[in-house]
Design goal:
The complex is a heterodimer. Chain A is of the alpha/beta class. Chain A is built from 17 helices and 17 strands. Chain A has four domains: 124 residues, Rossmann fold, CATH 3.40.50; 102 residues, PAS domain (Beta-Lactamase); 81 residues; 187 residues, 2-Layer Sandwich (Heat Shock Protein 90). In chain B, strands 2-1-3-4-5 form a five-stranded parallel beta sheet, sandwiched between helices. The longest helix of chain B is centred in the first third of the chain and has 13 residues. The chains are: A alpha/beta, B alpha/beta.
Chain lengths: 530, 130
């Protein structure tokens, strides 16, 4: 950078100054007037220009203007006459970097040059720095864009539904997976819907209540639930959520949903297929039951024939009774078989489980009294009202209570106080527990293992072998479970736990075609035998 | 004196039917509701024929038949099996018991599958008792 241009119309000054500047290590270009100086500047582009102000033709101010016009960054130092402060100020106005007075003193000149060089250096550094910074920002931006694109693609292509919200739980990210589950389009949701309208309240509440872990994000583990979707129905999902923290403040949340419809459907299909297989495999067992019934019908008609031929009304009566009994057995078997083979969705409604238990108790009261069995009710007032399928409760309880009565009738230990107890209780978690216990014959391990297999009956001619299968099927369709405990000689207890459906899910019921309930009502009657 | 026939069946309808057939043809019917009771009555009442069901609570017909046929004093007592179980299934379960370590026993001479007509039942009984 040690190049400078010196313009002065006085050759002596030009000579003396250039010599002195050369001695200071500068490469000096010279010109004797403004025009020549400008030409040299255009050709050589020195960084520093020293120009006299008073020159014939083009003066120093004009040279300054012309140079500044071509190169904003050129450092032009004006040489003024002694006390010519007005011109000096004008020169500064037009962008001169400095001025020095004639006669030129070495210190003043070198100071001015040093300042100019410093300015050039700083400007160059600043430029380098700026260019560098821009480049770095550009690189970082590109990298960020790449990463963002990658993340976006990841979120978009995820099979899971992903929904992210800001700190006020307004939705900001909503991927196609979420759209497949909820049915809303992204533009209907983003910044327009609140997480509360797609996530069950209690889950969101439990996410908000996760213990404060400082800057660690609060996570809600995977769990199964149902979510309301656009068409008003609810669909089963697996759900997990994370509450995002930054500097101990909630900055947003991410919610993950896995669509369980297909899995639930397959599970259901599997259960159904297993059941049909059970029916098919045991056609032999079924045939045995049918043969016995046919035999009874033949026997009955034989007795009726004799009654007519020999005019014996008592034979006629017993024969006819026998026919009727076996018609009843046919009906029991067919009904059990139908309700076992057929799929049925529970129909939830507000009902009174305790009243159903009382009703079942009164249905078996006569048979129980005839056999010296006392029926006890142990009903929890907290179960007075619940949203469940009352027909399921009725059939299940009637089957179990009839079994319990039979277990007492079959008991050989006649010294016992036979008792059948029907109990209801709340079991927490929206579960209602029904229990049926008896002090009858009890069951051996072997019998207990066969309990829920098809066509197994300890009742000989009296059972269809399907009662408990039907019972278990109804319980499972209602989302519950059935357990049994038994001691031979002491008695048996069946426990059924059924979930209550939350009241807000009631809307579901209205979506169903109205005739369904009617059609299936008849098929839910069961013989009450196991 | 009329011959005694013991009917062993848990189903009261079956007993009533069989007993009526027996009475109509001049036999003296006896009734037992399960295998255990049947065994007792065979020993005490000495019937001339046993009509035996297969599937019963408390000692099945499979077991009782086996006990009768391995008992020196009782093995010649005629047995008519009357069951909803097919004869093949009955024989299979007897074979399984034999393989399990029992003595080989003769197949039942008389086997009727439910449902049976009154005439056929009567004819078979007459054939056995002469």
């Amino acid at each position: 950078m040690n190049r400078l241009l010196l313009i002065d119309d006085e050759p002596d000054i030009l000579r003396v100054l250039s010599r002195s500047l050369c001695a200071d290590g500068y490469e000096v270009l010279t010109a004797q007037n403004g025009k020549e100086g400008l030409a040299v500047f255009q050709k050589e582009r020195p960084a520093i220009i020293l120009t006299d102000i008073k020159m014939p033709g083009m003066d120093g101010i004009e040279v300054l203007k012309a140079i500044k016009k071509q190169d904003e960054d050129a450092e032009v130092i004006i040489i003024t006459g002694h006390g010519d402060i007005d011109n000096a100020i004008e020169a500064l106005k037009y962008g001169a970097s400095d001025f020095i007075n004639k006669p030129i003193r070495d210190e003043a000149l070198s100071l001015a040059l040093k300042r100019a060089e410093e300015k050039i250096r700083i400007r160059r550094q600043l430029k380098e720095y700026t260019v560098n910074l821009e480049k770095k920002v550009e690189e970082a931006t590109r990298e960020l864009r790449r990463k963002t694109n990658f993340m976006e693609k990841l979120i978009r292509s995820s099979n899971d539904g992903i929904v992210a919200t800001d700190e006020r739980f307004a939705v900001v990210i909503y991927n196609p997976g979420a759209q497949r589950i909820f049915g809303y389009r992204a533009e209907e949701v983003i910044q327009k819907m609140d997480a509360a309208s797609i996530v069950p309240q209690e889950l969101l509440a439990s996410l908000r209540q996760e213990p404060d872990q400082g800057d660690r994000d609060a996570e809600l583990p995977w769990q199964e639930t149902t979510v309301p979707v656009r068409d008003g129905s609810r669909i089963p999902v697996r759900f997990a959520g994370t509450l995002l923290h930054e500097k101990k403040k909630v900055v947003g949340s991410v919610l993950f949903f896995q669509d369980m419809r297909e899995i639930k459907r397959l599970e259901k299909e599997l259960v159904h297929a297993e059941r049909l297989a059970a029916v098919g495999q045991t056609v032999a067992g079924l045939a045995h039951g049918i043969k016995n019934i046919l035999h009874g019908l033949k026997g009955g008609s034989y007795l009726v024939d004799i009654g007519i031929e020999k005019n014996k009304p008592d034979k006629l009566r017993t024969g006819w009774d026998m026919i009727q009994r076996n018609i009843g057995r046919t009906a029991d078997l067919v009904m059990d078989l139908l309700s076992y083979a057929k799929e049925r969705e529970p129909e939830y409604e507000r009902c009174r489980p305790n009243e159903i238990a009382e009703d079942v108790g009164s249905l078996v009261a006569e048979e129980a009294e005839k056999n010296d069995i006392s029926i006890q009710l142990d009903l929890d007032p907290a179960v007075d009202e619940a949203v469940m399928d009352p027909r399921t409760i009725h059939t299940v309880l009637l089957n179990l209570v009839s079994n319990a009565v039979d277990a007492c009738i079959f008991d050989e230990n006649t010294g016992k106080q036979w008792q059948v107890r029907i109990g209801t209780a709340r079991a927490g978690d929206g579960l209602i527990r029904f229990s049926v216990s008896d002090t009858g014959s009890g069951m051996s391990e072997e019998v207990r293992e066969k309990l829920f297999t098809s066509f197994f009956s300890t009742k000989g001619h009296r059972g269809t072998g399907l009662g408990l299968l039907v019972t278990r099927k109804l319980v499972e369709e209602h989302g519950g479970k059935i357990d049994v405990g038994s001691t031979p000689g002491k008695g048996t207890t069946f426990t059924v736990q059924l979930p209550e459906r939350p009241a807000e899910d009631q809307s579901l019921k209205e979506d169903k075609p109205q005739h369904r309930g009617e059609e299936e009502k008849d098929e839910q009657k069961s013989s009450g035998s196991g | 004196m009329s011959k005694k026939v013991l009917v062993v069946d848990d189903d009261p309808d079956v007993r009533l039917f069989t007993v009526t057939v027996l009475e109509q043809h001049g036999y003296k019917p006896l009734e037992a509701t399960n295998g255990e009771e049947g065994k007792q009555m065979i020993k005490e009442d000495r019937p001339d024929l046993v009509i035996l069901d297969v599937l019963m609570p408390r000692e099945s017909g499979v077991r009782l038949y086996r006990e009768l046929k391995t008992d020196k004093k009782l093995k010649d007592l005629p047995v008519l099996i009357l069951s909803g179980i097919a004869e093949k299934s009955f024989l299979r379960s007897q074979k399984a018991l034999t393989e399990f370590g029992g003595d080989p026993i003769p197949e039942p001479e008389y086997y009727l599958e439910k449902p049976v007509e009154a005439e056929e039942l009567a004819r078979t009984i007459q054939k056995i008792l002469g």
